[in-house]
Write a structure and sequence with these properties.
63% helix; two-stranded antiparallel sheet; mainly alpha; 8 helices; two-stranded antiparallel ribbon
Length: 209
Amino acid sequence: MRILELTQENVAALLMGLEYLIGISYVDDTEVFKVCLDYWNVFVLELFEAHNQMEPAATVSMMGLQAQMVPGMVDGTGTAVQQRRQLYSGPLSKLRMLMICRMAKPEEVLIVKDENGNIVRETMKDNDVLVQYKIMRETLIYLSHLDHEDTEQQMLKKLSKQLNGEDWSWNNLNTLCWAIGSISGSMVEEQENRFLVMVIRDLLNLCNL
């Protein structure tokens, strides 16, 4: 990919290829989506690691994800990293919406009573779906760190479409809520608190419709 970034002609072809791949990722076929998801995960991870190299040395914990942040710059300058982020800003924004729209179901925990009347936690697992959820969650967390504002706006935009009935369905609402839950801890506390207040407010308004 770095080779294709060297000339303007190749960059245009690269961006067009990413657009096609995003379109393919919406195809309703599990195996096709798995292949696309593996690529997106590697692609976003590479951009995320380059982004972190501009930060002071530290280790950041992201809901179980560990990323070592080391001092230094990619290609010797922070400008090169910023230019790459800008180059891929369009596809990355569309990729965030893809992850939100197709987010897999996380591990489900039910609170039930056992035969003795005791309250217990019952875990419902679908291993294939759970593996897919973990990859999508990881990818969306990386995407969120690359641009918190766009991630927030994409989710709120999707939620507003649920409220006005433009894009309403139980599946759309479920995948959106799973996506919102998956990035918990990826924003700074003040931003996350403000974001969750807006989400909860809109969900309550949805209940009143």
